[in-house]
Amino acid sequence: MTKILITAAGSYGDIAPYTGVGARLRAAGHEVALATHDAYAPLVRAAGLEFRSLPADPRTARPAADQEPGQEGPTPGKPPAGGNRALMRQAAAFIHRLGDGLAEAARPDTELLLLSTTTAPLGRQIAEATGIPSLDLPLVPNAPTGDFAPVVSGGRSLGRWGNRTAGRLALRVIDRLYAEATRDLRARLGLPPASPRTVRRRTEAAAPPVLYGFSEVLVPRPADWRPGLEVVGNWWPHLAPDAQLPSVVADFLASGPPPVLIGFGSMASGEGERLSSLAVRALRRAKVRGILQSGWAHLAAEREDDDLLTIGEVPHALLHPWMAAVVHHCGAGTAAAGLRAGVPTVPVPVTADQPFWAARLAALGAATTPIPFADLASPDAESRLAEALTRATTDPALRAHAARAADRLAAEDGAGAVVAAVGRLAP
Q1: Is 211 within 8 Å of 418 (Cβ atoms)?
Q2: Distance CA 362, CA 69 (A)
Q3: To the nearest whole number, what is the mean pLDDT of the chain?
Q4: Do domains 3-234+412-425 and 247-410 have the same CATH topology?
Q5: SS3 266
Q6: Contact 212, 412 (CB under 8 A)
Q7: Which has the closest alpha carbon to 349: 372, 319, 332?
Q8: Which superfamily does CATH assign the domain made up of 3-234+412-425 to?
Q9: Which of 126, 157, 301, 362 could bridge to 308 as Cys pair (CB 3.0-4.6 Å)?
């Protein structure tokens, strides 16, 4: 038995996959804690894992340093006013608070650290100070490659040289984001000064194993990646064996043909009224039933009937297989969940890695042409969304491609690969 600490920070999609990994490790005989934000404590404990608290929950709006008292803080799921600079300041502040929490979560009896993309740059400092072995478990491809541009660049290729160069520049941007937090954390841990770039280069030179929690169905492993960077398949959120759909959802599904699910997860906070109205009009126009999943946007149908239902949190694994199609923001986990269910997707990417995953789904033939989220504010948004809904629910080729992808995903065991790697690394 090994005492393992998994660290993950961000929104639901950044945390939930690690509950599945943790549950598998626990079943293999390890003692597992997951450090994340307080809002996800029930999720962690439901998987049978010890919960440890991390600060800086991104769902909690906090006033920016240059705002007057009484002004609103940054809105979760939306870029802050002031563009990229404000976004960078907000991200750096989030990371700085995270560093203190990670140091407290890594208790002296910890024997192995498993680090998410967000927590890895800080977790490496803790591993250096304590001598605890660590393993990076990213959910997105973050190592430079000529095969594609960085996932946060919008998904458009810049050519092999351009893609590799952009990938290296993206790592330097991340280094800048973590610079202040790394400096203070190293001082707290009694480590000599070293920049995030220096620590990253040391790590790269050591060439440790890195396991990526996505599927080659969507992103084949780049041929120019070094040995040790492995794509092992998706890590699915823990789901209790006896979990069932809420009765109101089951009754709605039984009352008519399969509906379309529309939800934007942790995106579009504060835009629920506009998006709900648009979604309902598009569903009516396409003549399909619909389920609006509230999320951070607080989507809700003004009037529910036999053709419309509003729901809160329901696991994708229970809900998606019953859908005629799914409309979502294309976060890594949500994109994979729709594919796992074998249903077509209407991608509406908002930011960060979402355009990348949207483009991958479309290239696979399992999704309609992506509709950028900003386009939902255009005059033709209703007609474009309705046309996409019609195609997603009537084009047999889309469903056939999604079904074939689902068969391939079912043959993968991403969590099993982590268990095997831990067996090799554990003291």
Answers
A1: yes
A2: 45
A3: 90
A4: yes
A5: coil
A6: no
A7: 372
A8: Glycogen Phosphorylase B; (3.40.50.2000)
A9: 301
Judge whether 394 and 388 are in contact, CB under 8 Å: no
Helix%, strand%, coil% for the chain, nearest 5: 45, 10, 40
Q: Which residues contact 166 (CB under 8 A, 6 or more apart)?
A: 144, 149, 150, 153, 158
Contact of 345 with 371, CB cutoff 8 Å: no
| Inter-axis angle of helices 381-394 and 396-410, nearest 10 | 70
Residue 74 near residue 50, CB atoms below 8 Å: no
Do the Cβ atoms of 332 and 236 come closer than 8 Å?
Answer: no
| Greatest CA separation for the chain | 65
**Cβ within 8 Å of residue 407, ≥6 positions away:** 342
Question: What's the CA gap between 181 and 95, in Å, rounded?
Answer: 6
Tell the burial category of 395 from Cβ atoms under 10 Å away from its Cβ (0-12, 13-18, 19+): middle
CA–CA separation, 120 vs 8, rounded Å?
Answer: 9
Global pTM reads 0.91
Q: Would you say residue 238 has pLDDT above 50?
A: yes
User: What is the pLDDT at residue 111?
Assistant: 96
- Alpha helices for 345-413 (secondary structure H): 354-364, 381-394, 396-410
Cβ-contact 145, 222 below 8 angstroms: yes
Domains of the chain by residue range: 3-234+412-425, 247-410
Task: Name the amino acid, one letter, at 48.
Answer: G
Fill in the DSSP letter of residue 367. Answer: B
Give the residue among 199, 193, 192 at the shortest CA–CA distance from 171. Answer: 199
Q: Which CATH superfamily is domain 247-410 in?
A: Glycogen Phosphorylase B; (3.40.50.2000)
Give the pLDDT of residue 237: 97
The type of residue at 389 is L
DSSP 199-260: HHHHHHHH---EEE-S-TTTSPPPTTSPTTEEE----PPP--TT----HHHHHHHHTSS--E
CB 146 within 8 A of CB 161: yes
Cα separation, 328 vs 318, in Å, equals: 16
State residue 76's pLDDT score: 37
Q: Comparing C-alpha atoms, which of 327, 339, 135 is closest to residue 234?
A: 339
**pLDDT confidence bin for 59, thresholds 50/70/90:** low
